[in-house]
Amino acid sequence: MSADQKVLYLHGFASGPTSTKANFFVERLNGMGIETAVPDLNKPTFAEMTLTSQLQIARDCLEKFGQDSKSIVIGSSMGGLLATLLAQVIPLQGIVLLAPGFGLPRRWSEMLGDDGLDQWKQAGKREVFHYATNTNEFLNYGFITDAEKYSTDGLRVSTPALVFHGTNDETVPVSESQEFHKLNPTNVQLEVLDDDHMLYASMEKMWSMTRSFLSAL
User: Fold this and answer.
1) How confident is the model at residue 85 (pLDDT cuts 50, 70, 90)?
2) Alpha helical stretches, state H, 90-173
3) Is the distance from CB of 70 to CB of 35 less than 8 angstroms?
């Protein structure tokens, strides 16, 4: 790791900047003297949040880092998808993806089915559990229509990437990251862990490997 490296941490869906993994990584990165930003992606509100709004928040943070910074993005779940989308259009030194949420619109469709999606579309909003507030909150259907504007399947990157994914992940199947690795064999290092989507049991191992990955950049 070098002193001029700066890290942007992007939390997951229905999460927040003080999540368990965000706090874990920030504490260790700051301990290494690495400046870290963890924006709240639930803007302008959780109900109105889209991939587009989140990507703009991330872009604004990277812009504040400055042109000369060696920017690294760490993303958890949907934050991992955002990090990958950013790497396609912004020069980054590296990305670290924690159970990245590839194939987002497709997975929502599989989870809800046609009837569920139609009900959401007709109502204009649906309730989802928000882990940061520990309550059910509404999310507008615009989240899905916006996500469909992005290619979240078959993503290719030229940025060095370290990916962690659990074999017991029931939210985003490990096959999503395995396919990403297959499409990007040169740039992507995939670490398959005996863990679930939260990856709580693997945090120390992920930090050790992330530290080595960042030091080698």
Assistant:
1) very high
2) 104-123, 142-147
3) no
